[in-house]
Write a structure and sequence with these properties.
heterodimer, A: 460 residues, mainly alpha, 2 domains, two-stranded antiparallel ribbon, two-stranded antiparallel sheet, 73% helix, globular, B: 479 residues, 19 helices
Chain lengths: 460, 479
C-alpha cells in the first residue's frame, strides 16, 4: 500500500512541486512583511527560510529515492500554461529525471546549510533580512532552473539567480567596490542572458514550444535532438554564449573575482557552488543540442581549457584568500565545461557536485583562515612552507617574470575590454547624450548647454 | 442599444468625466480642503468605472459600441477592447500620481491641470472620430506646456516643447484633414490621402518622440514636475491615435507603418543606450520612457498578433512600472534633493523602503520573471524575431540596455557611503499604499497573465482582421 503510494504519479508530482513551492513560500513570507513596513525578527526569518529549504531538501531526497528505485524515469509535471498567443505558448512544466533530481538534492542541501550558517554569521548585520530574502529568491530560482521542463521556466529561474547574485554582490552597499562589482556582474549577466533568451525564441520557432519534451527525445543522458540541424546549431551556440557568462569563462572572467565582495555565505553558495555551475547545468540539460553541433562542443572545450589554464595561473598570484578561491572555482568550471564539450555527461555532473561541496566549504571557512593557519603553525612548530611547483622552476627567469606580471594584471583581459570596447561605447553614448541636451538648449533659446556640448565634444 | 451597451457607455462616461468634475471641485474648494482630496476621490471614481468597463467588455458579447456622428470609419464615441484596456491604465496612473506627489507640488493650479489632462487623455481613448482626435490631441498638450512653463527654470524646455508640439499638431491636423478628404485605404485612394497618411505618421513620430524628433522628450522629464512628465507621456496618446488612424487601416498606409516601425526600433535601442549614461535620475526615467514608448510603437507597427500583443503589454507594464520608478524618485528628490547618477549617492541607509520600491519597480520594468514585463518582453521578442530578425535584435538590444540602466541607477542612487548625519526618511502611508497597489498589479498580471493576454489577443486579432480585409500583399513586406 505504502509502496503503491510512493510510486504514485500524484505523490511524485507533489514532491517535485514542493521543491519549488517551499522556497517560494519562504520568499513570500520574509519579503512581504518588509514591503508593508513590518519586517520579521531574525529568528523567525532564519526559521522560515531554513524551513523552506529544509522541506525542499527532504522532498528532493524522497523524490530521488523513489525515482532511483524506479530506474530514474522522466517525470514531467505540467503546471499549466502561463499564457498563449496563437501557436506561441509559455507552459509551466517541471521535470524530474536523472539529471535534475541529484542536482536539486545537492542544491537545496547546500542552501539549507548556508541558511543555517548565515543565521549566526550575519547576526545583527543591518542587511540581515535583505540577505535572507535574496537567499530565498536564489534558492527558488535555482530549483526552478534545475527542475525546469521548458526553456521558458529555465529562463525564469536563470533570471532569479542572476538578480539575487547581483544584489548580494552589492550587499555591502556602502562600499564603492561592492557597488561597482555588482554592476559589473549584472552587465555581464545581462549581455550573456541574450544567448538564453534568443535560444528560447529559436526553439519556440522551430517546434512551437519551449518544452524540452518536444525539443529532445528520450531521457538524459542519452536523449537526442528533435529540432532541425540548422536550428540546433544556432541554439547551441547561443546557449554556450549564455553559459560562458554565467560561469565566468573567457572573455567574461572579470566579474567573478570581484563578486567575492559579497558576504561570505553568499560567496560560498553562488561562486563556489551553484551560480557558477548554472551554465554547466544548462549545457547538460541541453546536451543533445551540443551533440548535434560539433562546432559548439569544440568551442566549449577550447574556451573551458583556456580559462582553466588562465585562472590557474592568475589564481596562484592572488594575495587574498577569497580571490584565490574565486580563480580556483573558475579553473574547475572551465574543466567542467571542457568535459561537457568532450561529450561526457555523468562525469561533469559528478565533478560539479563534488567541486561545489568542496569549494563552498573552503569559502565558508575562509574567514577563519588565519586562525587555521596559526593552529597549523603551532602543530608544525613553525609556519607552513610554500614553494613554487616544479614546472615553474624549469622556466627561464625572464619568462617567469612575464607570466607573473600577466597574472597580476589578470591576463590583461579587463584592460583590453575596457580600452577597446567599454571606453569607445561609453564615449560615444556620452557624446550623444550631450548632443541631445544641446539641441533642447538651442530650441529653448539657452546657449549655455549648447556651448557645454561643444566643450564636451572637444574634450571627448 | 441593449441594456448592456447602455451600462458600458455609462461606465465609460463616468470614467472620462469624473476627473473633470474633480477639477471643478478642486478649483471651487481651493483654500478649504487640500486639492489632493477631491482629485483622489475623482480619480478613484474614474478608476472604478474604468475597471467596470474592462470587466464588462471581458464578460460581454465583445461588440464594439459606436455612438454619435461618424466620419471615414471613425465615431465620436468608440468603445472596444482597446478602450477597455487603456481607460483603467490612464486612471490608475493618474490616481497614483495624485496620491504619491509631494504635498508642496500639489498646488490647486497643478491639481486642476493634472485632472484636466486626465480628462482629455481619457476622452481621447474613447473616440475614433478624426476631428475629435485632432481637437483633443491639441487640448491635451496644454496642461504639460503650462506646467513646464510655470516651473522655475522650465521656460527653455517649455519653448522647445511648444516648437515640437505646435509643429506636430499642425502636421497632424493637416494629415487628418487630407485623410478625411481622401482616405488612403479607400478603393480609389489618390495622392492626397497618401500625403495625409505620411503627415499623420510624422505627427505621431513627433508626439511620441521618435528619432529624430525625440529631444524634447527627456527634456520634459528634466525640467517639469515629475507629475507633468508622467501624465504627459505614460498614457501614450500618440500610440492610440496611430492605432485608430494608421494601424487599423494598414492596407492603405503600409509604407508609412514600415518607416514608423523602423524609426521606432532604432529609437527604442538608442533611448535605452542613452539611459545608461544619464547623469541624473530624471534623465534616466526620461530615456527609459522614451525607449519603452518607442518599443510600443514598433510592436504596434508589426505584422504578427504576438508583436501587437507584446506592444500592448509593454504599453501597460512600462506605463505602470515607469510611473512607479518616477514617483519613487520624486519622493526621494523631495526629501533629499536632486539625485545625481555619476557617483554613488548612498541613499540606502536613509531611505531603505524607497530603495526597495525603486528596485521592485525596476525589476518590473526590465522583464523580471513574475512581472508583466516578463510576459511583454517574451511576446515582443518572439513576435519581432518571427517577423523580422533585425527587429528582434534591436528589441533585445533595447531590453539589455534598459536593464543595465535601471540597475546602474539603483546602485548609483542607493549605493555608496551614506552621509553620517543623513536623516532616516519614512515612507508615508499615502505613498506606500499606491506604490504597493501598482506593484501588486504588475506582479499579479505577471503571475496570472492569461486573462489580460487573452484580451490583448482579441484587440490584436481585430486590428489584424481590419488590415487583412482589403490588404493586397507586397512581396517581402509584412501586411
Amino acid at each position: 500500500m505504502m509502496l503503491a503510494l510512493l510510486t504514485g504519479h500524484d505523490l511524485a508530482a507533489g514532491l517535485v512541486v514542493a521543491q519549488v513551492a517551499t522556497p517560494l513560500a519562504a520568499l513570500a513570507a520574509v519579503s512581504l512583511p518588509g514591503i508593508v513596513g513590518r519586517p520579521l525578527s531574525e529568528r523567525l526569518t532564519t526559521g522560515l527560510v531554513g524551513t523552506g529549504f529544509g522541506v525542499a531538501f527532504l522532498a528532493a531526497i524522497v523524490s530521488l529515492a523513489v525515482s532511483g528505485l524506479r530506474g530514474f524515469p522522466v517525470e514531467v509535471v505540467h503546471l499549466g500554461t502561463l499564457f498563449s498567443v496563437g501557436h506561441h505558448a509559455a507552459t509551466v512544466e517541471l521535470v524530474a529525471d536523472a539529471l535534475s533530481l541529484p542536482y536539486v538534492c545537492f542544491s537545496t542541501g547546500l542552501c539549507s546549510l548556508v541558511a543555517a550558517f548565515a543565521g549566526r554569521y550575519l547576526h545583527r548585520e543591518p542587511g540581515f533580512h535583505r540577505f535572507f530574502t535574496l537567499l530565498a529568491l536564489f534558492g527558488f530560482g535555482m530549483n526552478l532552473l534545475v527542475l525546469a521542463g521548458s526553456i521558458d521556466v529555465l529562463f525564469a529561474g536563470w533570471e532569479c539567480v542572476g538578480i539575487s547574485s547581483t544584489l548580494l554582490i552589492g550587499f555591502f552597499h556602502e562600499r564603492r567596490t561592492a557597488v561597482d562589482a555588482a554592476l559589473r556582474a549584472f552587465i555581464t549577466y545581462r549581455i550573456c542572458d541574450v544567448g538564453l533568451l534568443a535560444a528560447g525564441v529559436v526553439l519556440h520557432e522551430a517546434v512551437g514550444s519551449g518544452d524540452f519534451a518536444r525539443v529532445f527525445a528520450g531521457s538524459w543522458p542519452t536523449a537526442s535532438c528533435l529540432v532541425p540541424a540548422a536550428t540546433a546549431r544556432v541554439a547551441a551556440l547561443l546557449l554556450v554564449f549564455a553559459a560562458l557568462g554565467k560561469s565566468g569563462q573567457i572573455p567574461f572572467t572579470g566579474w567573478l573575482p570581484r563578486a567575492m565582495e559579497g558576504p561570505t555565505p553568499s560567496s560560498a553558495i553562488f561562486y563556489g557552488a551553484l551560480s557558477i555551475h548554472a551554465g554547466a547545468y544548462l549545457l547538460l540539460r541541453c546536451s543533445p543540442l551540443l551533440d548535434a553541433t560539433p562546432t559548439a562542443a569544440w568551442l566549449l572545450v577550447a574556451v573551458g581549457l583556456a580559462t582553466a589554464v588562465q585562472a590557474a595561473i592568475i589564481g596562484s598570484v592572488q594575495t587574498d584568500l577569497k580571490g584565490m578561491l574565486a580563480y580556483a572555482s573558475m579553473t574547475q568550471a572551465g574543466l567542467i565545461l571542457a568535459e561537457i564539450g568532450l561529450g561526457w555527461r555523468v562525469i561533469p555532473l559528478v565533478h560539479v557536485i563534488s567541486h561545489a561541496i568542496l569549494r563552498s566549504l573552503q569559502i565558508l571557512r575562509s574567514p577563519s583562515a588565519l586562525h587555521d593557519r596559526h593552529e597549523l603553525a603551532a602543530a608544525l612548530g613553525g609556519p607552513p612552507g610554500r614553494s613554487d611547483g616544479p614546472l615553474i622552476r624549469l622556466l627561464p627567469a625572464g619568462l617567469r617574470t612575464a607570466i607573473y606580471r600577466t597574472a597580476l594584471d589578470r591576463g590583461f583581459e579587463d584592460a583590453l575590454i575596457g580600452r577597446f570596447i567599454l571606453a569607445p561605447v561609453l564615449g560615444l553614448l556620452r557624446t550623444a547624450a550631450a548632443f541631445e541636451r544641446s539641441i533642447v538648449a538651442r530650441l529653448g533659446g539657452s546657449h549655455d548647454v549648447a556651448d557645454e556640448w561643444h566643450r564636451d565634444r572637444g574634450a571627448a | 442599444m441593449s441594456d448592456f451597451e447602455q451600462m458600458l457607455v455609462l461606465a465609460t462616461a463616468t470614467s472620462v468625466l469624473a476627473p473633470l468634475v474633480a477639477a471643478l471641485a478642486a478649483r471651487l474648494a481651493a483654500g478649504w480642503i487640500h486639492p489632493r482630496v477631491p482629485a483622489g476621490i475623482g480619480l478613484a471614481v474614474s478608476l472604478t468605472a474604468a475597471v467596470a468597463v474592462a470587466q464588462g467588455w471581458r464578460v460581454g458579447p465583445g461588440r464594439e459600441v459606436l455612438l454619435g456622428p461618424g466620419l471615414v470609419g471613425g465615431s465620436l464615441v468608440h468603445i472596444d477592447g482597446l478602450t477597455a484596456i487603456l481607460l483603467p491604465l490612464v486612471a490608475i496612473i493618474m490616481l497614483a500620481i495624485v496620491l504619491v506627489a509631494p504635498r508642496r507640488a500639489l498646488t490647486p493650479e497643478a491639481v486642476v491641470r493634472l485632472l484636466l489632462g486626465s480628462f482629455l487623455t481619457a476622452a481621447i481613448m474613447t473616440t475614433s472620430h478624426p476631428v475629435a482626435l485632432v481637437v483633443l490631441w491639441v487640448l491635451s498638450l496644454l496642461p504639460t506646456w503650462v506646467s513646464t512653463r510655470s516651473t522655475p527654470g522650465g521656460r527653455p524646455t517649455a519653448r522647445a516643447y511648444a516648437i515640437a508640439m505646435i509643429s506636430g499638431s499642425l502636421v497632424f491636423a493637416a494629415g487628418v484633414g487630407l485623410m478625411v478628404i481622401d482616405p488612403p485605404w479607400a478603393a480609389k485612394a489618390g495622392t492626397t490621402g497618401a500625403v495625409g497618411g505620411w503627415l499623420v505618421t510624422l505627427a505621431v513620430m513627433i508626439r511620441k518622440g521618435i528619432a529624430p524628433f525625440h529631444s524634447w522628450y527627456p527634456a520634459v522629464f528634466s525640467a517639469s514636475p515629475m507629475s507633468t512628465a508622467l501624465a504627459a507621456t505614460m498614457p501614450q496618446v500618440a500610440s492610440y491615435a496611430a492605432i485608430r488612424l494608421l494601424v487599423g487601416h494598414a492596407d492603405g498606409v503600409r509604407l508609412e507603418l514600415i518607416v514608423l516601425s523602423q524609426a521606432a526600433l532604432l529609437t527604442a535601442a538608442y533611448g535605452a543606450a542613452l539611459a545608461v549614461v544619464q547623469p541624473d535620475v530624471r534623465g534616466l526615467v526620461g530615456m527609459l520612457a522614451l525607449s519603452q514608448s518607442a518599443m510600443v510603437l514598433a510592436g504596434l507597427s508589426g505584422g504578427l498578433a504576438m508583436e501587437l500583443c507584446g506592444a500592448l503589454a509593454i504599453w501597460i507594464s512600462s506605463g505602470l512600472a515607469l510611473t512607479g520608478i518616477g514617483l519613487v524618485a520624486w519622493a526621494l528628490e523631495s526629501r533629499a534633493g536632486r539625485l545625481e547618477l555619476n557617483t554613488p549617492q548612498g541613499r540606502f541607509a536613509d531611505a531603505p523602503a524607497l530603495a526597495a520600491f525603486f528596485l521592485l519597480f525596476g525589476l518590473a520594468s526590465l522583464g523580471f520573471p513574475g512581472t508583466l514585463s516578463f510576459v511583454a518582453d517574451d511576446l515582443i521578442v518572439a513576435g519581432s524575431l518571427g517577423d523580422q530578425s533585425h527587429a528582434g535584435a534591436l528589441v533585445i538590444l533595447a531590453t539589455v540596455f534598459s536593464g543595465i540602466a535601471v540597475v546602474r541607477g539603483w546602485f548609483r542612487i542607493f549605493g555608496g557611503p551614506a552621509a553620517a548625519d543623513a536623516p532616516r526618511h519614512q515612507v508615508l502611508r499615502r505613498e506606500r499604499i499606491p506604490l504597493i497597489v501598482l506593484l501588486s498589479v504588475l506582479f499579479g498580471l505577471g503571475l496570472w497573465p492569461g486573462p489580460l493576454v487573452q484580451s490583448l489577443e482579441g484587440v490584436a486579432e481585430s486590428l489584424l482582421l481590419s488590415r487583412r480585409s482589403t490588404a493586397a500583399p507586397i512581396p517581402g513586406v509584412h501586411p
